[in-house]
Design brief:
This protein is an alpha/beta fold and 195 residues long. The chain has 2 domains: 1-39; 43-193, UDP N-Acetylglucosamine Acyltransferase, domain 1, CATH 2.160.10.10. Helices cover 19% and strands 32% of the residues. It contains 2 helices and 22 strands. The chain has helices at residues 2-14, 16-39; strands at residues 43-44, 49-50, 55-57, 62-64, 69-70, 75-78, 83-86, 91-92, 97-100, 103-106, 111-112, 117-119, 121-123, 136-138, 141-143, 148-149, 154-155, 160-161, 166-167, 172-173, 181-184, 189-193. It has an 8-stranded mixed sheet with strand order 2-5-8-11-16-19-21-22. A 6-stranded parallel sheet has the order 1-4-7-10-15-18, with helices on one face. Strands 3-6-9-12-17-20 form a 6-stranded parallel sheet, with no helix packed on it. Helix 1 (2-14) crosses helix 2 (16-39).
């Protein structure tokens, strides 16, 4: 049903010839990404929609749940020991980058807006050695169910966003945020509870 509505909207907006090209492109990327990710070992649920090219490393340690929607240009980078899990019915907006050297877990029914950056790692900063030569420090990032990250949000290592959290556009979460809180700013601070 969703695809039929989308096709009708495209025809009304662009005309029949352009609509055919857009639909062919849409179907091509969905099929291309699905098989590419299967080949590298990503665990894929049913009904996933890919809006364009998706880059994945560490395929066997990446799981995408049923009916997830992944925007074009998304990067899923599960490092040597990292694990990425995306829940059912979750949307990951275009050009979002998720990096896991430990674990990044995103719950179900989440909305991750375009251009977000989620990372469970940073570098050591001890004096006496170049920062770039120091070991990574990794702590899991856990994002609960029904969470909304506005565009350009950054979620840093060790953060737990409980169920129902909203982070306003451009927010940087460097500390955990309690259930159903709306947080904004740099660093993101709770300003109210969802009602």
């Amino acid at each position: 049903m969703f695809i039929v509505k989308k096709i009708k909207n495209v025809i009304n907006t662009y005309g029949i010839v352009e609509a055919i090209l857009i639909v062919k492109s849409y179907i091509f990327w969905r099929i291309f990404n699905y098989f590419k990710l299967l080949i590298i070992g990503v665990k894929l649920g049913k009904g996933i929609i890919f809006e364009g090219i998706v880059r994945v490393s560490g395929g066997k340690r990446v799981t995408i749940g049923d009916n997830a929607r992944i925007g074009r240009g998304v990067v899923l980078d599960a490092g040597k020991d990292g694990k990425i899990e995306i829940g059912c019915n979750t949307y990951i907006g275009m050009n979002t980058i998720i990096v896991a050297n430990s674990e990044v877990k995103i719950g179900s029914n989440c909305l991750i807006s375009p251009f977000c950056y989620i990372i469970d790692t940073d570098h050591g900063t001890a004096l006496g050695e170049n920062i770039r030569n120091q070991s990574y420090i990794s702590l899991p990032v856990i994002i609960g169910n029904d969470v909304w990250l506005g565009t350009h949000c950054v979620i840093l290592k060790g953060v737990k966003l409980e169920d129902g959290v909203v982070i306003g556009a451009g927010g940087i979460a460097n500390k955990s945020i309690s259930e159903n809180m709306v947080a904004v700013g740099v660093p993101a601070r709770p300003i109210k509870t969802r009602k």
